[in-house]
Amino acid sequence: MLLQIPEVLTAAQVGDARAAIDAAEWVDGRVTAGHQSARAKDNEQLPEQHPAARQTGDLIVAALARSPLFRSAALPLHVFPPLFNRYTGGQSFGSHVDNAVRQVTGTAHQLRTDLSATLFLSDPADYDGGELVIEDTFGVQSVKLPAGSMILYPASSLHHVRPVTRGARISSFFWIQSMVRDDGQRTILFDLDLAIQRLAGEQPDHPSVLQLTGVYHNLLRRWAEL
């Protein structure tokens, strides 16, 4: 499942995030790349332990917790602390697949990367190029979203970032370990949840609301890994 989640951050929150991270010192983005990814990666990144990265990452994680659409689609168990990258002057990231397991820097905690997320922090009009291109069973998708909006997709997907030929593409990227590791099962639960919400909104007393809610939770109980 590939899903756009609009307005994860408000315009004011994007402004606060940019003020914090734009003033920080950036480093070579290959510091967090695996062996295969490092050969394809050409961008800048905010150091993981930089105060601006941690402050803005906390802002994003709090916003995700308030997003019913994110919670329904991702069924998050763990969210990797958000990272931040910047592309300018022709920089790009060639085709790659994200590492299956990530270790949270400075801790013993490891996270299985079921889902990848990119939260855009630059408006599309501010740069040329920089589309996130995702390839999977759903075909090839080219993504370039308004600042504050996010794309969520399976971490197993082959993906790349096209060269930025004008301006700067700034975004946050991170991974989610879901309670349900299988993308097909997550998609079934997501579609069912949306259908229940729609029916409950239109006919709150319909007996199928209770029945379908029971089906949803019984499937989640069967598939969830905690």
Q: Write down how many β-strands occur, each being a DSSP E stretch of 2 or more residues.
A: 16
Overall average residue pLDDT: 94
The helix content, as a percent range, equals: 25-40%
In N-to-C order, the SSE pattern is EHEHEEHHEEEEEEEEEEEEHH
Q: Which segments are poorly predicted (pLDDT under 50) over 5 or more consecutive residues?
A: none
- Give a short account of the largest sheet: 9 strands, antiparallel
Radius of gyration equals 18 Å
Please, how many helices? 6
- Tertiary shape: globular
Oligomer: single chain
Class inferred from helices and paired strands: alpha+beta
Give the CA-CA distance, first to last residue: 21 Å
How much beta, percentage-wise? 25-35%
Condensed summary:
The protein is 33% helix and 32% strand. It is α+β, with helices and mostly antiparallel strands and 226 residues long. The strands form three sheets. Strands 1, 2, 4, 5, 6, 10, 11, 14 and 16 form a nine-stranded antiparallel beta sheet that branches. It has a five-stranded antiparallel beta sheet with strand order 3-7-15-12-13. Strands 8-9 form a two-stranded antiparallel ribbon.
